[in-house]
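Hey, can you fold this one?
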Amino acid sequence: MAAVVDQLEIPGLPLFRRGKVRETFDLGDALLMVATDRISAYDSVLPTGIPDKGIVLTQLSRFWFERTRDLVPNHLITTDLSDLPAAAQPFREQLEGRSMVVKKAERIDIECVVRGYLAGSAWAEYRREGTVCGIRLPEGLTECAKLDEPIFTPAAKADTGHDENITFERMVDLVGRDLAERLREATLTIYRAAEEYARTRGIIIADTKLEFGLVDGELTIIDELLTPDSSRFWDAERYQPGRDQPSFDKQFVRDWLTQSGWDREPPAPPLPPEVVEATAAKYREAYERITGRPLFPLS
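Sure. Predicted structure:
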């Protein structure tokens, strides 16, 4: 199994931000974003990483950034390591495949979620209230049912803990109507195009979340795009409404953690090798199914 890149420090490059999964370094007029192999579940970063996970996240984001750049601008500048400053060059082996140089943006603190199917927290709310983020849906829908039209269900971002689902009108209060409407339109545009393409690859994108920022006043997609960490990917051939769906993400991890009896309070327990291997295989399969090419060798 490949070595896990769990944490990365680059002397000479100031750390801009350390997230649950990514390290971001300040290059002055740009940022170096590095996806590690850390994995989080239930708001905790686990002590066991998933080999090549960061490479999958970066390469799949790169694929989608390039495919959708004519629809909505994104922050990707390059993935070419030769463009990095001298301080980063000794770390090429750790950076290879998992790094992007991106534009600096003024982050908008809204998680832009779009749902084409009734799953996860949306299904839980629908069963209680008949709504999703305040949007009234038809009666009688089943778990994982396909919605007549995808719906935009924003959340207020939180650096720790869960993001908070909010109504569109609450989003308007937070960012203004013009920006709120632009965010909704951009999110739905990306989702519709990606969902249509993914179906040709035998994948259903049930839902996804996007992050946006402003670059010189232009609305721009930042962070990652349409990865197994930010989306629910289902196998189209195995899709059956009325039940939970097998997915290409960290479901093996969540299932094992639930069965382990962990109370979801930090620290999280280490993962057994078989769960690590199964999760790594699902991440790689998601990349290969969607892009139509193997993860390695990196192109």
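The radius of gyration is 19 Å. Let me know if you want another pass with a different chain boundary.
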